[in-house]
Amino acid sequence: MRRVVVTGLGLVTPLGADVETVWANLLAGKSGAGPITRFDASNQKCQIACEVKPADHPYGFDASRRVDHKIQRQVDPFIVYGIDAAGQALEDAGLVDMDDDLKARTGCSIGSGIGGLPGIESESIVLHEKGPGRVSPHFVHGRLINLISGQVSIKYGLMGPNHAVVTACSTGAHSIGDAARMIKDGDADVMLAGGAESTINPLGVAGFAQARALNCSYNDRPEQASRPYDKDRDGFVMGEGAGVVVLEEYEHAKARGAKIYAEVVGYGLSGDAYHVTAPHPEGKGAELAMRMALRKAGLEPGDIDYVNAHGTSTMADTIELGAVKRVLGDDLSGASMSSTKSAIGHLLGGAGAVEAIFCILAIRDQIVPPTLNLDNPDEGTEGVDLVPHVAKKRQVRAVLNNSFGFGGTNASLIMKAV
Amino acid sequence: MSDTADRVKKIVVEHLGVEADKVTEDASFIDDLGADSLDIVELVMAFEEEFGVEIPDDAAEKISTVSDAIKYIDENKG
């Protein structure tokens, strides 16, 4: 059976625009949250977000590093973030210069939950104010979700499978899981896989606030707003950015002497069949996805050392915790579990991929990132190590990464040290 | 250099992300400045906005160099 390993990582997040900076900031307990600066949010219920910082910030993002000026102008930010993260991952894997055979065996599976909402909003205003003749000719392909995979394939000449998942906040995890299967099935030897999002625009913030999903009560204390498992949690904080990994067939990676971070051993998927925004109250769908991933991985609950929870800082946190307890055991069988959304917010379609990278780095460095703002743990958390406030050195052999999305879509990934 | 030429070149530099010294009057948008057909549609829209002229599709199709654009605008602006 073909095995799939991770050989490259790329991140653009509110805590930095390269893997090592993000990881150092995350382990140091920094928060990426702040007042919204991207637009005037004074009339919004929610006025805070975890924004990717501008290029002049100490850990800001410089779009011109890997994306042509012309493309930056034509596409939505989620595509720019995705292209940059994919470039980082390829560089990290040592795969920038590939021969034509390998390019034909290398594909892209980089999705997004929502896609180009800022551009849809602004171009809709152009349509109404100036008429159809002023709508940009780049409007459609600058907003489409599969255009990260499209742009990356064009930039690097990758002619393998070109795929893009759209499963709301499970997108990043499904993208990696699906891509791993493509490698297992022999469709490709190398896949760039991940997700990106950027919807910190008036319509995006208003939409999520109206759906009662966003935290709207910490506008004066943005860094304390994302507080998974805490009694005073009150909705998620929107983040933005991208995470992309290079997945590679194990023998291929070994033969070229690639640095191998971890192996993707388990992937589970399910649907809640319950409600468009609320998770099943008993977490049945989440449980099914986790059990499937464990079974595929051939692992026992006690083998999992770290769970990167979906943990959005909403009422759903305790539902997920209940499901994890049923799968792993009430004490999580020795595993630590944290939500890094406490630091970087919820990257929506990017979340699963960014968090998978945190899981991989936890294996590499034998340390697990903290859950910030966990001052008063909610009922049901007793006896569970939720890694409050500070990162924790510990053994990390195998990790479980959960992602759940609107529509009741669930994905669980399990990765382990090779 | 005319005022029209200055403003046209500025738009081309901004939209195509090319060095200003490459935007000579005989430069072809596609062959010399890396544009594709959709970039030209966008440039034409930007010229229309900047100069308050209307450039119909059949005229736009004949604009392939920087000087074609300058000439059309000078002949048609109000």
From TrEMBL, chain A:
Gene3D superfamilies: 3.40.47.10. GO terms for molecular function: 3-oxoacyl-[acyl-carrier-protein] synthase activity. It catalyses: a fatty acyl-[ACP] + malonyl-[ACP] + H(+) = a 3-oxoacyl-[ACP] + holo-[ACP] + CO2; (9Z)-hexadecenoyl-[ACP] + malonyl-[ACP] + H(+) = 3-oxo-(11Z)-octadecenoyl-[ACP] + holo-[ACP] + CO2. It comes from the Bacteria. Its EC number is 2.3.1.179. Belongs to the thiolase-like superfamily. Beta-ketoacyl-ACP synthases family. NCBIfam families: fabF, PRK06333.1, PRK07314.1. This is 3-oxoacyl-[acyl-carrier-protein] synthase 2. It comes from Novosphingobium pokkalii.
TrEMBL record, chain B:
Keywords: Cytoplasm, Fatty acid biosynthesis, Fatty acid metabolism, Lipid biosynthesis, Lipid metabolism, Phosphopantetheine, Phosphoprotein. Residues 2-77 form the Carrier domain. Signal peptide: none annotated. One of its GO terms (molecular function) is phosphopantetheine binding. One of its GO terms (cellular component) is cytosol. Its main location: cytoplasm. The modification O-(pantetheine 4'-phosphoryl)serine is found at S37. The keyword tRNA processing does not apply. It is found in: Cytoplasm. InterPro entries: ACP (IPR003231), ACP-like_sf (IPR036736), PKS_PP-bd (IPR020806), PP-bd_ACP (IPR009081), Ppantetheine_attach_site (IPR006162). 4'-phosphopantetheine is transferred from CoA to a specific serine of apo-ACP by acpS. 4'-phosphopantetheine is transferred from CoA to a specific serine of apo-ACP by AcpS. This modification is essential for activity because fatty acids are bound in thioester linkage to the sulfhydryl of the prosthetic group. Pathway: Glycolipid biosynthesis; KDO(2)-lipid A biosynthesis; Lipid metabolism; fatty acid biosynthesis. GO terms for biological process: lipid A biosynthetic process. Belongs to the acyl carrier protein (ACP) family. NCBIfam families: acyl_carrier, PRK00982.1-2, PRK00982.1-3, PRK00982.1-4, PRK00982.1-5. Carrier of the growing fatty acid chain in fatty acid biosynthesis. This is Acyl carrier protein. It comes from Novosphingobium aureum.
